[in-house]
TrEMBL record:
InterPro entries: Ig-like_fold, T9SS_type_B. This is Gliding motility-associated C-terminal domain-containing protein. It holds the Pfam family CHU_C.
Length: 961
């Protein structure tokens, strides 16, 4: 009896010990945190932890994990219950999901974190050991911004449960899907452990393929590799060497319009086994790009060289009704557990609601089932996977036409087109125009207007509209120009209605419409030539030509020609009046302008045309000005001369071959063509002469470029209006002759810069001036030195360049070039339209040859921090002084944290709202008693320093009820 009682007691104690061990066992293998906004009015989000539990080493502890705790920043713990049921997803792993709703206090960037004891023991690549003493920690960064709408984080649809095998390639892809259509990118990350209050710190971490390195890849190459594809998210290990547990982590980045708006960390465990089995192979699938409305029907195939039975599955946002609607994709496998080879069929009827900027990624995974063996643990199931990328774009707008119409602005065209096939709410038809007809590449996946095609956006209308009036924004269209039009439909971002999941899922645009090109009537002449015939200080000659207007001959008409100094000169002087009756063939469309200083100056010409109307000469449309071609020497080059030239003209000099001429020293006054330069840009072109003659058709005349020797050049531009109505169709114009020496390129000296500083005391007396800081101005001034380090400075400065950086240490960018020839150069600049005074500047000087000085001294300017709080408020709902707020308005406040305490030091209220807006209640909504309370405010003001120093203010406030 006593022996039996002792045996029963021992059994009972062992049971207790077993229960105690299970309750404290290691159990979390992997996990990540996601968030989704669930309120259109409040900043309320559903925060979800998806955790994967080890049922082999910690089943009891896993099953007992009925809730978890989140931190939002240091705010927490926030308890979240488990959503039942627990899902067994294979490989001794269950998936547990915990959800809580949380309302954020304000917009901003927040880190949501979770940590739980303990990790598995014996993990080979993290430390310090023993790893069972290390907790599991993951975090997610969520940015709440009104510009993002009802944004949500991506979700990771593929569970991290697949085994790896020694000597075989392992691949994992999280199959991330963003319902908002944001761009996703991936990068490896160091696993962390939690410390306190939501903080995390990196573990000691070794790349998995460095354990027992060097290893070999599956194909025998050395060394083994481990990495993650930044674009596709494929995490590949080729191939493990040692059996055991490994922990890795990676980040899924969420990008919108080039801005990083969120990050998710997935920490996962890779279990490497001696599988005694070869992994199956999923056949790669090429990317698909389709027009919305296309039925996709794609076969998926996988094989196994061992002839094992195979199962084929698929995950992706295209199957999720909560993420996409109304038409869901389907994946069917006629025969699961097929032997050796298995096929499946992916079908998806796309629709207008599926158009988006980013592709849809659909993951296909094949898993083998190796045959029964005396030791089945050695015959582990292995997997392979492949991803199908699907881009769904908007259909092409159809039926574009344009007709002339009367308009007070002058020449105008009414555009019409047929109703659009995909009238998605919020989408817009964008109208593009360019001068001259032009083809653009025709490719199935080329959406929008390609960069560099010359089209510019001129307007947009709602997608249900089918007409647009182009009157050049009230200025009228110019005569003599062939105009080309195209349409593109742009689709909105999602998140406008939380009750309509899956609609408007990701922006994007349509393929461009077919071109509609038209010729405007030539009611007024256009300038075709401004060519320099002779270069001289006093006897320079320029010939100007223009076209005849489309008008009947016989009636009196008149041309008036004006000239201004400088390519963009605007002070015009009339130089000729030419009376004509528009007789065909008459020499009335040419004028030779003489007595000019073409050596020093370019010239700009304007033509006015007067026609007879009601017996009187009436001025017709203004004609766009055209300048002479100006040739300049560029920056210094040893034994070479750089030439730059430009012309401000209404025709197109780009995408043409210009001609460069150099004087033959053996025959003074004779110019030999030395090069033909194919140019791309619309205005400024260049050529570097090394002395060789690269154009042989008129004879080869090489020379040697040496210092202090003079070389003379001229260039001939080649352009066109790209309009069949304008003859000649190709326009040739010469520059002046430029004679330069290769030593004429000494850099000028750097200027000395100053900036007006703020009088903070004066500004604080009128803080209302900066309640909505827009249109602020920084005033810069500088001087140019006569000498530097004992050497004279180049006095021939032709321009100053102003550079600006928002923060100290950032690389400044060019924001303006100050030049006002022929009057003296200005030495001041107003940087206008700012919302903050903070920033840094420097200035450089540029000489007539384009050589730029070293930067001036860098000067930085800061704002005046202003934040003043009252000492009393009366939250009695009488509409007067009901909330505790700063006086006037806070100026230049980047962020703040406000805390209020009662007289015993207990915190009663906290907010990150810049305006505080404390209504006399606790954060839980309970009214506080009348009396005195103390506060502490930590403020980050906008500064010229990227990491500004926080300012702390302490004070008291009286609540009166």
């Amino acid at each position: 009896m006593r022996s039996a009682l002792r045996l029963l007691l021992v059994s009972f104690l062992l049971t207790l010990l077993g229960i105690g061990y299970e309750a404290n066992a290691t159990h979390i293998r992997a996990g990540e945190i996601t968030a989704k906004r669930v309120s259109a009015t409040a900043l309320t989000y559903e925060i979800r932890l998806t955790a994967y539990f080890d049922m082999q080493n910690g089943e009891g502890a896993a099953n007992a994990q009925n809730f978890v705790q989140f931190y939002v920043g240091s705010n927490g713990p926030i308890e979240a219950p488990r959503i039942l049921p627990i899902i067994n997803i294979g490989n001794n792993t269950t998936q547990n999901i915990y959800i809580v709703r949380y309302t954020f206090p304000s917009a901003g960037k927040f880190r949501i974190s979770f940590e739980e004891d303990n990790r598995n023991n014996g993990i080979l690549n993290i430390g310090p050991p023993p790893t069972q003493n290390l907790n599991f920690y993951v975090s997610t960064i969520l940015e709440i911004n009104a510009n993002f709408g009802l944004n949500q984080t991506p979700v990771l649809l593929n569970a991290p449960i697949d085994l790896a095998a020694v000597g075989q390639r392992y691949i994992h892809n999280p199959n991330a899907f963003d319902a908002d259509g944001d761009s996703l990118a991936y990068r490896l990350y160091t696993p962390q452990r939690g410390t306190s209050n939501g903080a995390g710190v990196n573990l000691q971490y070794v790349n998995p393929n460095q354990i027992n390195a060097p290893g070999k890849t599956e194909t025998g190459a050395s060394p083994a590799t481990f990495g993650m594809n930044r674009l596709t998210g494929d995490l590949t290990w080729d191939a493990p060497v040692t059996k055991g547990y490994y922990n890795v982590a990676f980040i899924v980045e969420e990008w919108r319009d080039g801005v990083l708006i969120g990050e998710i960390v997935r920490d996962m465990q890779i279990i490497v086994e001696d599988a005694r089995n070869d992994r199956p192979l999923a056949q790669p699938i090429p990317d698909i790009c389709v027009e919305a409305g296309t039925l996709i029907n794609q076969q998926i195939k996988a094989t196994d060289k061992n002839g094992d039975r195979l199962n084929l599955t698929s995950t992706g946002g295209v199957y999720e009704r909560t993420l996409i609607s109304p038409e869901l994709a389907r994946f069917t496998v006629p025969q699961q557990s097929a032997i050796g080879t298995i096929t499946g069929q992916f079908t998806w009827q796309t629709s207008c609601n599926h158009i988006r900027l980013e592709p849809y990624d659909v993951l296909f995974k094949v898993e083998d089932a190796p045959g029964t063996n005396a030791n089945p643990n050695l015959f582990r199931k292995l997997v392979d996977m492949t991803t199908l990328s699907i881009k769904v774009y908007g259909p092409k707008p159809l039926g574009l036409r344009a007709v002339a119409t009367t308009d007070p602005a002058g020449t105008a065209y009414r555009l019409n087109w047929t109703s659009y096939k995909c009238p998605v709410p919020g989408a817009r038809v964008v109208i593009y125009r360019r001068e001259g007809c032009s083809d653009i590449p025709v490719e199935p996946c080329l959406t929008g207007i390609p960069a560099g095609s010359g089209y510019e956006e001129i307007g947009s209308v709602a997608v249900d509209q089918t007409t647009y009036l182009d009157n050049n924004n009230g200025d009228g269209l110019r005569a003599g120009i062939s105009y080309s039009y195209r349409l593109v439909v742009e689709f909105p971002r999602p998140g406008t209605n939380i009750n309509e999941p899956g609609s408007l899922i990701g922006g994007g645009e349509s393929v461009a419409s077919d071109e509609f090109c038209l010729n405007l009537p030539m009611l007024a002449p256009v300038i075709t030539n401004v060519t320099v015939d002779s270069t001289s200080e006093t006897r320079g000659v320029i010939t100007i030509k223009w076209t005849k207007p489309a008008a009947s001959s016989g009636l009196p008409a008149q041309y008036r020609l004006f000239r201004a100094v400088g390519q963009n000169g605007s002070v015009f002087t009339q130089i000729a009046t030419i009376n004509t009756n528009l007789t065909p063939g008459a020499a009335d469309t040419i004028f030779v302008d003489r007595g000019l200083n073409t050596l020093a100056n370019p010239y700009n010409y304007k033509l006015e045309y007067y026609a007879t109307q009601g017996g009187q000469l009436v001025k017709m449309d203004d004609i766009k000005t055209a300048s002479s071609v100006r040739l300049e020497q560029g920056a210094a080059e040893p034994n070479r001369i750089r030439l730059n030239w430009s012309a401000l003209v209404p025709w197109d000099n780009g995408n043409r071959t210009h001609r460069v001429y150099r004087e033959d020293k053996a025959r003074p006054g004779t110019f030999n063509r030395i090069a033909e330069v194919t140019v791309q840009g619309p205005q400024t072109f260049n050529y570097l002469d090394d002395g060789s003659d690269k154009y042989a058709a008129d004879g080869t005349v090489n020379t040697t470029i040496v210092s202090d020797s003079t070389y003379c050049y001229k260039v001939e531009t080649v352009g066109s209006y790209n309009n069949s109505q304008i003859k000649p169709s190709v326009l040739y114009n010469f520059s002046q002759i430029l004679c330069v020496s290769s030593s004429d390129t000494t850099k000028p000296c750097p200027p000395v810069l100053a900036i007006d500083q703020l009088n903070c005391d004066s500004l604080r007396a009128h803080p209302e001036a900066f309640c909505s800081p827009t249109g602020l101005t920084n005033h810069l001034s500088w001087t140019y030195p006569q000498s530097l380090d004992g050497k004279d400075c180049d006095p021939n400065v032709s321009a100053y360049r102003i550079y600006y950086a928002r923060y100290e240490g950032d690389t400044p960018t060019l924001i303006a070039t100050v030049t006002t020839p022929p009057s003296p150069l200005a030495t001041t600049f107003n940087h206008e339209g700012l919302t903050s005074f903070a920033g840094c500047y420097y200035v450089t000087a540029v000489n007539r040859f384009g050589a730029e000085s070293a930067p001036s001294n860098i000067v930085c300017k800061d704002n005046c921090p202003m934040y003043v709080l009252p000492n009393v408020f009366t939250p009695n709902a009488d509409g007067k002084n009901d909330e505790f707020q700063p006086y006037e308005c806070p100026a230049f406040v980047q962020s703040l944290e406000f805390k209020a305490f009662n007289r015993w030091g207990a915190q009663v209220f906290k907010t990150n709202d810049v305006n505080i807006n404390w209504n006399g209640k606790t954060n839980g909504g309970k009214d506080l008693a009348a009396g005195q309370y103390y506060y502490e405010v930590t403020i980050l003001f906008e500064s010229s320093k990227r990491e500004s120093t926080p300012t702390t203010m302490k004070g008291w406030v009286q609540i009166i009820r």
